[in-house]
Amino acid sequence: MQPIRYVLVGLGNLGRRFCEVIVEKAPLLRERYDLELALVGAADSRGAAYDANGLDPARVAAIKQAGGSVADYPGAGRAGWGALALVQAAEADVLLEASPVNLAQGAEPGLSCIRAAMRKGMHVVTPNKGPLVVAYRELHDLAKANGVQLRFDGTVAGGLPAINLGARDLRGAVVRRIEAVPNLVTGYVMDLLADGVAWDEALARARDEGVLEGDGSWDLEGWDAAAKLVILTNAVANFPATLDDVQRDGITGVDVAVLTAARQQGQLYRLLARAERQPGGDYALSVIPTPLPLDHPLGRLGSKQMGVVYTTDIYGVITAIIDEPDPIPSAMSMLRDLLDIYVESVLQ
Amino acid sequence: MQPIRYVLVGLGNLGRRFCEVIVEKAPLLRERYDLELALVGAADSRGAAYDANGLDPARVAAIKQAGGSVADYPGAGRAGWGALALVQAAEADVLLEASPVNLAQGAEPGLSCIRAAMRKGMHVVTPNKGPLVVAYRELHDLAKANGVQLRFDGTVAGGLPAINLGARDLRGAVVRRIEAVPNLVTGYVMDLLADGVAWDEALARARDEGVLEGDGSWDLEGWDAAAKLVILTNAVANFPATLDDVQRDGITGVDVAVLTAARQQGQLYRLLARAERQPGGDYALSVIPTPLPLDHPLGRLGSKQMGVVYTTDIYGVITAIIDEPDPIPSAMSMLRDLLDIYVESVLQ
Question: Shortest Cα distance from B149 to chain A (angstroms)?
Fold first, then answer.
């Protein structure tokens, strides 16, 4: 039995759900992979907890569910203890960095935690787009220099293994085009607008459904899709794109009459993220509300579905779609990455 | 630069295409992965060729394209030299076993070649379903015992990484259901029948298009789909299914009136391969012509598309589809597997 000690930073929607599910998965992980996961540290915005003998993920989840902080964890929690200090102090094998995207503050504290963990020889798994958008190449090189793995399959299209599929299964190919609908909110809102629902009402419903968070500008102005496209283009096409390279148009200015007309012609409007290989080998990146005809591989996405299409020279056109009615697949992308680090063989 | 010596058994549609494309890919493989592939041996049904310094894949492809045998390869070819003898004699790192499915003869010569290669410490990559259907568990154990890898992503749904996606990216999940349309011919023929084309004419067109081979019974009676389902269920659900476990119904007895009626209701008929998890943890396997409604994840497949749907407990419902207008993606699945063996990191 191989023990794996992990630290979890960020206990919001993804971190808390991970704690809930991982408890149920313990017997399967032991039996199928001979792995014993131990949560030794956890941090949220108000504090952190550490116990080398292991915290109970179910208890952490319950504290968060009740509106508390992990700082309240009996005997192990400390109010005001920062995530970075926890990572620096912890003896652990892996960091799961699940704090929310925070580009306004330089992707902190996620970025510093990831750097610190890798310098200590810890592997890193993160569904947080911020650090990768800000410092893709630096973090990639740092992982290599420290002989650790940096995995981030959950950054794009939730629980869809879009990055794994693109980076691993397209090896040897020239990727001619990446098309993705990696964001749920924008499609959900445009579907409602086309139904005749007013803008404010559509946003309110998205908020009620839990698909819209904060002031919404990150999603609605296309930043979320652009960030995901940047990560996809780096990881799958190995092209060093940045946010500045993305021609970006969100859905805040979208014309409802255009959406309605498209609907009547059987087209689906989605905020399409696209990277197109240019003759010189560079990629042109755009995020634009786009009418998708029915016969487009993403032309029949439901409002809780995301997808990606890779057009390649030698592997045909490969489409992958996820139906993700709740955030559990997004949260569990961290388990996928973690198992991919520790389970050697592809086959059981 | 890491040199990789490989032996290619089988120079039909897949083996020959592989030879054609691999020549063009040499610079990319060197630059991107620091790998130098060398074809040191090749065999077809009439003979074999071996040169420790390397054969020219383009020349092998040209000989086959002209209707010849690799036994004619100048200086290295020998008529009547069998594939197994070649594998036993060759000094090489990997066997690419691409001979056609041959269940009638115990999946030979593929099965013996694979066994011999693994016993010599060679990795094996194969898109040949036969050996895996006949001896999945034995080959799996043999690979483990010899410390080599056995990879077969190309056995299911051509160039779609259906197995990689299922076996790797669903780790940690309980797979509740596998649904696949892994065979092109049956969908192509049923589409024509629904168009009003007569059976014989539909088969003739499938043959002209190159999607139907031999007497067709392997595809039309559902054996091909059943074999792929058996492999999927073993590799993805880790359940030891065999061909005998598959409730199998091909398309030879399909009622054209039923196809036409389904078409009028907007449904797509496909030979659906399905493995459904039962309460006790076993899987029930079936291959049955099935009407797929438009909102089924595979309900809008084109006649040159194949797909798979995984319904899981923690990763939602994941669908993957390939548009494969020619056999190149199927052939190049061997490159995908080969690179996955030799390229360590997921990211470049």
Answer: 8
Give the whole-angstrom CA distance, residue A244 versus residue A224: 13
Other C-beta atoms lying within 10 Å of the C-beta of residue A198: 11
| Buried-exposed string A87-109: b where 16+ CB fall within 10 A, e elsewhere | beebebbbbbbbbbbbbeeebbb
Q: What is the spatial distance between Cα B41 and Cα B52, in angstroms, rounded to a whole number?
A: 8
Closest residue, chain B, to A21 (C-alpha): B314
- Within chain B, residue ranges assigned H as helices are 13-33, 57-65, 83-89, 110-119, 129-146, 162-169, 184-195, 199-208, 217-220, 223-237, 256-264, 328-342
Residues of B in contact with A266 (CB under 8 A): none
Q: Is the dihedral of CA A103, A105, A108, A111 positive or negative?
A: positive
Domains with residue ranges and CATH for chain B: 2-159+328-342 (3.40.50.720), 162-323 (3.30.360.10)
Strand A77-79 to A47-50 pairing: antiparallel
Query: Could you tell me if A87 and A117 are in contact, meaning their C-beta atoms sit under 8 angstroms apart?
Result: yes
pLDDT digits (tens, 9 = 90+) for B328-338: 999 999 999 99
A28 in contact with B, Cβ within 8 Å: yes
Cis peptide bond prior to B109, omega within 30° of 0: yes
Phi, psi (rounded to 5 degrees) for B302: -75, 175
Residue A304 phi, psi dihedral angles, 5° rounding: -115, 25
Cβ under 8 Å to B: A residues 161-200: 161, 164-165, 167-174
- Which chain B residues contact residue A150 at CB under 8 A? 347
* Residue numbers of B between 329 and 348 with CB closer than 8 Å to A: 329, 332-333, 335-336, 339-340, 343, 345-348
pTM above 0.80, yes or no: yes
Nearest to B167 among A21, A322, A346 (CB): A346
* 8 Å CB contact of A318 and B320: yes
- Calpha distance A143→A125 (Å, rounded): 11
Which residues of chain B are within 8 Å of residue A238 when distances are taken between CB atoms?
32, 348
Q: What ipTM was assigned to the predicted interfaces of this complex?
A: 0.96
Of B322, B325, B346, the CB nearest to A318: B322
Q: Write out chain B residues lying below 8 Å of A25, CB-based.
A: 172, 314
Sheet arrangement for strand A77-79:
A77-79, A47-50, A35-44, A2-9, A94-97, A123-125, A150-151
Q: Which amino acid is at B255?
A: D
Side chain identity, residue A161: P
Contact B322 A319 (CB under 8 A): yes
Beta bridge partners, A319, equal A309, B321
Q: Give residue-wise pLDDT tens across range A23-78.
A: 999 999 999 999 999 999 999 999 999 999 999 999 999 999 999 999 999 999 99
The two beta strands, A2-9 and A35-44, are parallel
Per the CB < 8 A criterion, the answer to whether A28 and A36 are in contact is no
